[in-house]
Amino acid sequence: GSSSNLKGIPFMSPLTVGDVALRTIRPEDGPVLAEIVKTTLAEFGGVGPGFASSDSELNHFYDAYTRPRSIYYVLVQNGEIVGGGGIAQLDGLNDPSVCELKKFYFQSSVRGKGIGTILATRLLEHARAFDYKLAYLETLNTMTAAMRLYEKLGFQRLEKPMGNTGHCGCDRWYTLQL
Q1: What is the 8-class DSSP label of residue 165?
Q2: Is 139 helix (H, G, I), strand (E, B) or coil?
Q3: pLDDT tens digits for 85-97?
Q4: 2-36, pLDDT tens digit by residue?
Q5: Which of 38, 84, 154, 178 lies at a CB distance of 3.0 to 4.6 Å from 74, suitable for a disulfide?
Q6: Cα–Cα distance between 102 and 156 in angstroms, integer?
Q7: What is the DSSP annotation of 1-62?
Q8: Helix 144-152 and helix 115-129: axis angle, to 10°?
């Protein structure tokens, strides 16, 4: 499972923020996470083909992060899953040095509390430990708080997408040298 990808990695970032805890994904988390992805995207206008809400990965969420050099964290608050985010090699680009920050979605109740910074930092620590050299992500121009977070972390805007994620509906692309 994805917990095997944790071995031997020294982490600096915390696993709790207030009453929200981070843990690695479990098989039973998939349906709840898929629903969070869909409702969050709908909130920001990301509906239909070309968005993560249409990904086949949503039907086998856990399995997508059991591959080597990938991991997914779930945010838990009061026993309920309230979001998550992961990292894996970028699809459609035959370059093992490039990863993607993936399925990074939070319910509105936990946004704006610094949790995104902590989770993204933890995922980037994994990316470096997995020997990725470049982190890529895609988002929507309506997700202004998310874009501010990515820019604060040092991500740089791209003019066009990389790889082949199937997310043609995304209109903002970023990379970070690791």
Answers
A1: -
A2: strand
A3: 999 999 999 999 9
A4: 445 555 555 556 577 788 999 999 999 999 998 99
A5: 84
A6: 17
A7: -GGGGGTT----S-SEETTEEEEE--GGGHHHHHHHHHHHHHHTT--STTSGGG-GGGGGHH
A8: 50
pLDDT tens sequence across 38-81: 888 788 776 666 655 555 666 778 888 989 999 999 999 999 99
CA distances to 31, 106, 108, 152 from 145, rounded to whole Å, are 26, 12, 12, 11
The full DSSP string for 79-127 is: TEEEEEEEEEEPTT---TTEEEEEEEEE-GGGTTSSHHHHHHHHHHHHH
Residues in the chain: 178
The residues with which 71 forms a beta bridge, in sequence order, are 87
Output the six-digit token pair for 96: 């093992």
Could you tell me the two tokens for 145?
A: 């708080």
Residue 105 near residue 145, CB atoms below 8 Å:
no
The closest alpha carbon to 73, from 149, 14, 150, 132, belongs to: 14
